[in-house]
Design goal:
Length: 72
């Protein structure tokens, strides 16, 4: 059994145990950054097929930072 990464763990909990509409995904799209709700991101990315996980910069829930790829 492999250990889930932090990003996978946050997304799994948001989808299955919380209200996904409270989560915001910030991702890199070419030269810009895009902020969308988690449900919208899952549709846009087609479950990470079109927007891979390595382009996710950060995830917030009600303005609280849960995941950040960048060093703060």
């Amino acid at each position: 059994m492999s250990k889930k990464g932090r990003l996978e763990e946050i997304l799994s909990k948001a989808i299955h145990f919380d209200d996904p509409k409270l989560y915001w995904v910030h991702y890199r799209d070419f030269e810009s950054f895009v902020k969308v709700s988690l449900p919208e991101f899952l549709v846009l990315s087609q479950n990470f097929q079109l927007i891979p996980a390595h382009r996710v910069i950060k995830i917030t829930r009600e303005e609280k930072l849960l995941y950040s790829k960048m060093k703060i």
